[in-house]
Write a structure and sequence with these properties.
Layout: H1 2-13, H2 27-57, H3 61-64, E1 80-81, E2 87-95, E3 101-109, E4 117-122, E5 127-132, E6 134-137, E7 146-154, E8 163-167, E9 180-183, E10 193-202, H4 209-222, E11 226-231, H5 239-247, E12 251-255, H6 278-288, E13 293-299, E14 303-307, H7 313-323, E15 327-338, E16 366-367, E17 378-382, E18 387-390, E19 395-398, E20 401-404, E21 410-416, E22 429-430, H8 438-457, H9 463-472
Parallel strand pairs: 2-9, 10-11, 10-13, 11-12, 15-20, 15-21
Antiparallel strand pairs: 1-2, 2-3, 3-7, 4-5, 4-8, 6-7, 8-9, 13-17, 14-21, 15-17, 16-22, 18-19
Length: about 475
């Protein structure tokens, strides 16, 4: 037994793995060497066990991103100011007409443009992709330091982002950044509206109630299913009608608190065209309705694109497109009908109309003659899918051809205040084109006023019943 045990030690002692021989004099040294040789293996084993324990105790990736890699500060405000940058984000849209882009509609201080980055939250790979943006400042700035811009970023491959953040740095954490939903991810060819009117900003405590109602009803008569209104402020008499049009589904009211971000009082008077961000509003409205509406109409609330040869926009646009199949942008020449000159009209109003503040457009049929030495401003009906950037009177970037519609086909009826020193009243031309629609307009305006009456006086559970009964006796 002892001999066998001795042989075992001899065999182990002679094993080259342990690096020593079985010599009685050197045995303590051999044991010491064995300890030094085994120690690294024990250290590695200890480190592996510690790492396994540490990672087991950490939250899993699934816990960090439960369903969406961006469950953080998603903002729905109309305007968002970026920190550390004179940049204001309005909204973001996918634009895959040429490349797979995210286009962010924005307002920038073009004299102090900084680098910007798009932070994409990739839904599939659950990662954050940071792409340097191209800042495409619109060429028409109307002499102001602030102007419309597109912040454009290529979308990463295999990302399918639902949200994007815009930041002046490529470093940081996404939890600190406001995130914007990327709209238009589904390019639908089935439109919910044939015509959508995009009104530039209403501002200055707008109180021209009667003309507002007449314009809204004319848009409906001519074929609009939706009117998008960006509202800075309005008068108290205007409020119930805004609510009525929103309730019936005609108006989409979008708050536009631009005065909270930019002090326009310091700008000089020639900036009226861009005042309150008109250009930015129109660009947002085009992208907002790119796949919701076949056509988008761009004008002010005191303007109407008025067909001369046709009775509505649908037949007019069909005729224009049949003759110009490659065209997607149509310009209509402005014709000014001053507030200051009245026509004697009997039966073109009602007693209710006189209770409202504002202008009766049926009384204004005298227009300013075209001045050949001046370029009359124009407004537009566009195929929104043909527009990349628009200004107030022109499309800055787009696809296909443009057309200036002859005035014997349609005009832009603009019933506005007029400077008599430029054109005395005696030089005005009688043009009763608006009277073609007087019967339907009077009926529609009276109907809206009756709705307002019933909303005001029958606020009860029976309100819907009362309105239905009233509609029978219209």
């Amino acid at each position: 037994m002892y001999g066998g045990q001795k042989r075992m030690h001899e065999n182990v002692g002679n094993n080259p793995l342990f690096g020593c021989k079985n010599r009685s004099r050197t045995m303590p040294r051999c044991r010491k060497r064995n300890v030094f040789v085994i120690s690294p293996f024990l250290l590695v084993l200890f480190v592996l066990c510690f790492e396994l324990y540490y990672w087991t105790m950490q939250p899993s990736t699934q816990a960090k991103w439960p369903t969406d890699p961006c469950p953080h500060k998603v903002v729905n405000d109309t305007i968002t100011a970026l920190k550390y940058s004179k940049t204001f984000i309005i909204s973001s849209y996918q634009d895959n007409r040429e490349q797979n882009l995210t286009r962010v509609v924005a307002i920038v201080d073009y004299k102090n443009v900084q680098d910007l980055y798009c932070w994409f939250c990739c839904s599939r790979s659950r990662r954050i992709a940071i792409i340097r943006a191209v800042i495409d400042i619109h060429t028409e700035r109307f002499g102001l330091p602030f102007g419309s811009a597109d912040i454009v970023c290529m979308e990463p491959q295999y990302c399918s982002p639902k949200y994007v953040s815009v930041h002046s740095s490529s470093k940081g954490t996404i939890e600190e950044l406001p995130q914007f939903e990327i709209k238009n991810r589904v390019a639908s060819t089935s439109f919910s509206a044939e015509f959508t009117v995009c009104l530039s900003v209403t501002f200055g405590n707008h109180s021209n109630v009667l003309q507002f109602i007449q314009s809204m009803e004319m848009y409906k008569i001519l074929g609009a299913q939706k009117v998008v209104i960006y509202v800075t402020d309005y008068s108290q008499p205007m409020e119930p009608f805004l609510k009525l049009y929103a309730a019936e589904g005609t108006a989409e009211i979008i708050p536009w608190p631009i005065v909270s971000y930019i002090n326009f009082s310091s700008f000089w008077s020639s900036s009226q065209d861009w005042l309150y961000g008109k250009s930015a509003v129109l660009n947002d409205c085009i992208y907002r309705n790119m796949y919701r509406s076949r056509y988008v109409v761009l004008n002010d609330i005191d303007e109407i694109i008025l067909p001369i040869k046709h009775l509505n926009w649908k037949t007019m646009m069909k005729s224009l497109e049949d003759q110009n199949p490659e065209t997607g942008i149509y310009f209509f020449e402005s014709h000014f009908f001053p507030h200051s000159v009245f026509a004697s009209v009997d039966g073109f109003s009602s007693a209710l109309w006189k209770t409202l503040p504002g202008v009766n457009i049926l009384q204004h049929i005298y227009r300013v003659p075209n001045r050949m030495w001046l370029n009359n401003p124009r407004k537009m009906i566009v195929n929104p899918r043909k527009v990349v950037q628009t200004s107030i009177h022109s499309v800055l970037k787009g696809y296909g051809r443009t057309m200036e519609v002859p005035k014997d086909v349609a005009i832009l009826y603009a019933c506005k205040a007029h400077n008599r020193r430029e054109t005395p009243d005696g030089y005005l031309i009688r043009d009763p084109a608006i009277w073609r629609f007087n019967a339907s307009l009077i009926s529609s305006v009276n109907d809206m006023l009756s709705k307002k009456f019933f909303y005001k006086h029958f606020k009860s559970p029976w309100n819907a019943l009362v309105k239905n009964i009233a509609s029978i006796f219209k």
